[in-house]
Amino acid sequence: MTTQRLAHTLTLTLILAGCAGESRQPSSNPQFDWFEYTGSDPVYDQFPASDSEYNNPIIAGFYPDPSITRAGEDFYLVQSSFAYFPGVPIFHSKDLVNWTQIGSVLDRPSQLPVDSLRISRGVFAPAIHFHDGVFYMITTLADAGGNMYVTTSDPAGPWSDPVWLDFDGIDPSIFFDDDGKAYVVNNGPPDYDPLYSGHRAIWIQELDVENGTMTGPRSVIVDGGVDLSKKPIWIEAPHIYKVDGLYYLICAEGGTGDQHSEVVFRSENVVGPYVPFGGNPILTQRHLDPLRPNPITSTGHADFVELPNGEWWAVFLGVRPYEGDYYNTGRETFLMPVEWENGWPIIARGDETVPYVHRRPDLPAQPDAPIPTYGNFTYRDDFDADALQMNWNFIRTPRESWYSLTEVRGRLVLTARDEPIGKQMQPSFVGRRQQHLNASASTAMYYKPDAPADKAGLVAFQNDDHYYLLAVTLADNGPIVQLEKEAGSASDEPVIVASVPLAPVGPGPIYLKIEARGDRYNFYYGTTPDEWILLKGDEDGKILSTKEAGGFVGTMFGMYAYSEGTKE
Questions:
Q1: 70 has which bridge partners?
Q2: Phi, psi for 44 (deg, rounded to 5)
Q3: What pLDDT does residue 6 have?
Q4: Candidates 41, 171, 206, 236; catalytic one
Q5: Within 10 A of 94 (CB to CB), how many other CB atoms are there?
Q6: 395 in Cβ contact with 84 (< 8 Å)
């Protein structure tokens, strides 16, 4: 067994204890026979990629704050995961286009204590670096310990336990200079009272890698942003590169919304002074017509990588709204080349839009990833492996065994627990990202609720206060299928949008499907394959958008189970 598979199996295959033997009959712990996700956005038909081209985004759905590094001919990419577990998904590629997830950097509870956090806390802006045969991932665990880094010689894992660093701020990145010294740059408050809301600074300090401590003076190298007199906000996500003897510092500026941008500074000394480029920003879409067709907006938070042939490329985040600033897919990972002009790097000039199709990097094309990350596709999991596939996620850190792929072979069994979704707990939820504006998630579930509070089914989850739950439960001593909606109300309980009685549960499954069409969501059920009955259509999908729900994540489609009275 490979190190990658062993680490993932040990971490994520939580085999339920006390099983009396395999049972393929409906029970109070739901059994999911399969899960299928389909994404079909017309833009990919409008802009098909030829063999010499690629599609943006390269990793669609909620995969924000990308950071990239190269080890020889191999490229590795990580993104923010906030309060989802495992944390910091890591992808591998040889051509910058086809990315295969090889694990998650933080896949042990000891590395990621995000037990009761809000969904948009936890992992902020990881940065990955390869230096002298060692991989480093440095990040902020917001409200869960602060800034830390982990290391490994194998990016598929396992990674070390965290080395905690004592400094204020977020978004750390490591720069290894060619004199053997290492430095951490990060976003933090200025060294005096902020002048306005969003006034931040970029700090630098030497890192003693051997002892895992910060050393020497800590100083500000950018105050506010490109031009402090214009009151720039949220200078963050710094990375330093050394090119032709000069130090280049790139940062995000303007906040992570539709005013987002990427800017660059240059210095002859690693600790400054840093001079801003006169042509900043080097990437933004904020000045373009918001009514243009198929807009890509909110671009920024970039990281650069140099190819063996000397080309430079950038990964960065962006979003694809279906209307205005509304999007449910979260912030996604995009790719564009970096052009150097008069000693300065540029990603997009003037009114240049981030393209859906672009020429490939000058690298040998690789086979498609086993789990697609871009374009239109259908993904199906028949739960016939011993471990969950790597694109599945839990809400917060699991501390007990509550799911199994081995109790009933070919099915995912969830233990129905008294950990309700929407209550900042760790529910019995297994989910994957919505990666298209037009998408569906469906499943076949074997389930027999025992009490009126029991429920199991499919969830479209944005955060604890914004979700839809399509579930089977009991009412009037009989099974029903119902749709619950939580849209940030002050009530302790979600609204029951619709419900219908079901025939008494027999040996067959109940089929459930959630369908997204931009800002409209439809909810279906059925008792025979491919014969869907509409329970409720045309529901408001904007409650699942970042604009309405807040935070930094995107929508997850997942399977869920709940029962009262199971906590000790």
A1: 75
A2: -75, -30
A3: 37
A4: 236
A5: 17
A6: yes
Q: Are 177 and 242 in contact (CB under 8 A)?
A: yes
Q: In whole angstroms, give the CA distance from residue 228 to residue 218.
A: 21
Q: Name which of 137, 152, 139, 145 is nearest 117 in CA terms.
A: 145
Q: Is 44 helix (H, G, I), strand (E, B) or coil?
A: helix
The amino acid at residue 497 is V
Amino acid at the residue 374: Y
- As given in the structure block, the two tokens for residue 325 are 């600033």
Catalytic residue among 65, 258, 381, 454: 65
Q: What's 407-435 look like in SS3?
A: CCCCCEEECCECCCCCCCCCCEEEEEECC
- Residue whose structure tokens are 């409200």: 143
Residue 486 is among the residues annotated as catalytic for this protein: no
SS3 category, 45: helix
Q: Which of 216, 125, 135, 211 is nearest to 169 (CA)?
A: 125
Cα separation, 126 vs 137, whole angstroms = 6
Length of the chain: 568
Here the tokens at position 44 are 């990919």
Task: Judge whether 503 and 485 are in contact, CB under 8 Å.
Answer: no
Residue 148 to residue 449: CA distance in whole angstroms: 44
Whether residue 4 is predicted with pLDDT greater than 50 in this model: the reply is no
Q: DSSP class of residue 180? A: S
> Is 368 annotated in the active site?
no
Q: What is the pLDDT of residues 20-57, one digit of tens each?
A: 346 777 788 999 999 999 999 999 999 999 999 999 99
Q: Domains of the chain, with CATH numbers? A: 3-17+28-37+376-562 (2.60.120.200), 41-359 (2.115.10.20)
Q: What are phi and psi of 163, to 5 degrees?
A: -105, 115
pLDDT category of residue 16 using cuts at 50, 70 and 90: very low
Q: Determine how β-strand 412-414 pairs with β-strand 403-404.
A: antiparallel
Report which residue type is found at 30: P
What CA–CA distance (Å, rounded) separates 71 from 74?
5
Strand, helix or coil at 488? Answer: coil
In 228-361, the DSSP E strands lie at 236-243, 246-253, 261-267, 275-276, 283-284, 297-306, 312-319, 332-341, 344-346, 357-359
Mean pLDDT of 370-389: 97
